[in-house]
Structure formats: structure tokens, C-alpha cells
Amino acid sequence: MAKQTTAFSRKHLIGLSDYTRDEILHILETARSFREVLERPIKRVPILTGITVINLFFEASTRTRISFELAQKRLSADTINFTANTSSVKKGETLRDTAQNIEAMKVDMVVVRHSSPGVPLFLSRVLKSNIINAGDGAHEHPTQALLDMYSLLERIPDLKGIRICIVGDIGHSRVALSNIFGLTCLGADVAVCGPPTLIPRHIEQLGIRVFYKLDEALAFADVLNVLRIQLERQGVGLFPSLREYRDQFGITRERLENFPKDWIIMHPGPINRGVEIDSDVADGNFSIILNQVTNGVAVRMAVLYLLSGREREQTQ
Ligand code: CP
Q1: What is the dotted CATH code of the domain comprising 21-141+294-313?
Q2: Pocket flag, ligand 1, residue 143 (CB < 6 Å)
Q3: Among the CATH numbers 3.40.50.1370, 3.30.420.10, 3.20.20.220, 3.30.40.10, which is that of 142-292?
Q4: Eight-state DSSP code of residue 273
Q5: Which pTM was predicted?
Q6: Distance (Å, whole) CA 225 – CA 152
Q7: Of the residues 83, 144, 230, which should be mutated to test ligand 1's pocket, given the most ligand atoms within 8 Å of the CB?
């Protein structure tokens, strides 16, 4: 990764669709120094002292929420968690009122996850705070894609020409879209694979390949990013059964052995073991799934630091 010389000038991270290669590399390079902080006995630096961050989660999360909270604590920010189920949203308060009331308590940065695409963009228009998208419906999940790219770059120094296939429920996946934007921006050769009912029409217009047969995808790719079937976002049955999905698209050891390579196997979590991926692959030698989780904290530290403007203040 090239060393960045100019300060980061973005206020929000809504998605990767309009982020440039330099901006993405700037985040990943910054994350590398924060990754080193995570190995220290005292995993804390006073970089965001005085900054207050709210984690505004309207949808369930394990990894993203804990990772953001840890990132904030590691940077010495003040951090608050909001859960919709135990808030006045239950009494009918609107999203805008909720967000503006919280901001009135002198919050500086908002991390938001919501089931509706567009909520982070909306908040960026009605609040003064920095907004970070922690996943909005089936739209984008930019910090997941950034941590995925960071984890790949730990194994492969340059993603240009790297053949990566995202396998699974592409149509309902915010992880897929952010990965497509980020990886193509860094020059990777990206494909998606899944049943036709789970792949949006015309997706190849994003500059990627499409495979409807897993064996063709396995012949093409060196890296697999395996996605969960998002049953909670599917209104109707888009394939006959989970057993049939596993037979056609499940990543098993036997299937990978038909294509002997130094595979890199990724998954954003949560995993449905025995459906999209078998345990001996998810926990096997090719898997970097838990590295992705560890790196997520460093990447989110980088995003919080750069959006906060503290880097700009230090370089002036
Ligand atoms: N990868 C991811 O977004 O996981 P969570 O839903 O647990 O945050």
C-alpha cells in the first residue's frame, strides 16, 4: 500500500460507491497502524479524547456493534449504545426525532444500522454529526468491505487482478455491494455466484462476472467470500429449500478439493454452518474468517479517526 500524503477530507462514510482508490487505501493504511495498537498490553490511545459517539442500532448485530464499540474505547472516545427495542421508538418516536434528540445531548459521531436502505444518507442531511453506515438494509455495509479488503491485503500485497468470487445471496446483501464497489476500485477481478433468483439482473454492469454454477466459479476464483442466505429479507421462497441450496452452492471440503489451490475463504458472519459453508471449511486452514473479525476493530478505529477530523488537525 502506498503511503498517503494528503489529509482525509470526508465527513461521512455512507458507502463505498463514491469513495476513490486513494481514499480507500488511506483508510486501510491508517488501519495498519491501529492494528499494531491492538497487540499492545494496553490497547488504548488518546486519539479521540473528548469525542462522543453513539451506536444507533435498529437491527441486530454482534460483530459490527461490538467492533465499533471496542474501536471507540481503544481510541478513548466516549461511547453510548442505543437499542431500538428498549427506546422511545417503541412509543412511536420517529427516526428523525430520535436522532436529533440524541444529537442535542452533544454527540459528535453517529454509527447507524437500520433495515431501511438510505437511513445513513438521510441522517447525514438532518444532523451535524459525522455519520457512519454500519449496514443499511440490502444497500451497503462499507466497514465490512473495508475490513475484508484489509484482511485480503494481509495475504496478498496488491489486489489488482486477484480473482475473487462472492457466493450466495447477492440480491439481499449489503456486504456484496460494498465489496463489489471496493474490490473493483482496487482492481480486483470480481465475480458473484448463486441461484438466478438471488442475483440482481444487470449486476454485470458493475464490471463483474456472474456465475450460476458453483463449479464454474470455483474454476475461476482464488478467493471466496461466502454469504449467508438472508431469509429475513426474502419476502417469498426464492429457492426450493436450504438443503437444495447447500447441494448446489454450499462450500464443502469435497468441492474445494476438486479445485486444488491455496484458497482464501472469507465470510462476514453470522455463519449458517452446513448451509452456505461447512464447518470444516469455515474452521479450516484456508479460512481467514476470524482474522476478518480482529481486523474489523482496527479498520473501524481508522474510519472513526479519519472522519473525526483529528488527522486534519494534526497535519495543520
Ligand atoms: N458481519 C456483520 O455485519 O455481522 P453482524 O450482523 O453480527 O454485525
Answers
A1: 3.40.50.1370
A2: no
A3: 3.40.50.1370
A4: B
A5: 0.95
A6: 11
A7: 144
Name residue, grid cell 479521540: 48
Does residue 63 line the site of ligand 1, with CB under 6 A?
A: yes
The three grid cell numbers given for residue 199, joined into one nine-digit string: 442475483
Count, residues in the chain: 316
Q: What is the pLDDT of residues 231-272, one digit of tens each?
A: 666 655 677 788 999 999 999 999 999 999 999 999 999 999
Measure the CA–CA gap between 5 and 124, rounded to whole angstroms: 27
User: 179 CB less than 6 Å from ligand 1?
Assistant: no
